[in-house]
Amino acid sequence: MTASNSQEWKAQQYDTAMSFVSKYGESVLELLAPQPGERILDLGCGTGDLAAELARRGAVPEGIDVSASMIEEARVKYPGLPFAVADATAYRSERRFDGVFSNAALHWVKPPEAAVETVRQALRTGGRFAAEFGGKGNIAAIAGAVAAELAGLGIDAQARNPWYYPSIGEYTTLLEAHGFRVAGAWHFDRPTPLAGGENGLRLWIDTFAAFFFAGFDAGVKERALQAIEERLRPQLYKDGQWTADYVRIRVLAYREE
């Protein structure tokens, strides 16, 4: 993950229960089309699986993530690759990269303008940026159920919400304002099955959205989770499987100057 926020990352849980994150990210690598010898910055590298895939394809990756636990796990898994704890809104390097790659990370980064400027500064002129992250409408059902339940407890969920889910128009305009030529942009639904069976939704919440329940005692939190499950069950649960209502943005852009 990338910019600072109130989320506390459980790296091993992320690696096991949420392994779909890296799996889906492999198709974004095809968009990047890394070539042997190219220097690639993996922005929001998590536990390093896609940086390792970049290396297997002959590229020279460097991974950064704001989460120290994620970077620690990446270094254990892939000791031969360079990983660093860094904030996507502030990272700067003396080196210039042929490409910047980011998967399932930029929706955690505010302000987005700072992240785009980080990408621009990292790239050589003509270098490319390939990314996928949550787009407008992402997890609308889940977020709506959480907000409704918290509202009943007198809590404004939006005040606790760190996510940034732009439309294509918003994000491509932002890229162009920072000196990028946008070669392609896509906005698409991707319903995503969750691991964990009956507990899949609460496992997802525990991994990605625990901040909504900060300060709750155990009993209040359990009742809230049960109520959220019941709100969402008709829409997102079928045959013992929870499915998250993911909507993604994918972009390919080039630094012009």
Automatic annotation (TrEMBL):
What the entry lists under Gene3D superfamilies is as follows: Vaccinia Virus protein VP39
Question: Which one of the record's GO molecular function terms can you name?
Answer: methyltransferase activity
Fetch the CDD domains from UniProt.
AdoMet_MTases
Provide this UniProt record's keywords sorted from A to Z.
Methyltransferase, Transferase
Residues annotated as domain Methyltransferase: 40-127
Q: Which Pfam families match?
A: Methyltransf_25
A GO biological process of this protein is:
methylation
Query: Membrane spanning segments where?
Result: none
What's the superkingdom here?
A: Bacteria
Entry-linked InterPro entries = Methyltransf_25, SAM-dependent_MTases_sf
What is the protein's name according to its record?
SAM-dependent methyltransferase
User: What organism does the record attribute this protein to?
Assistant: Paenibacillus athensensis
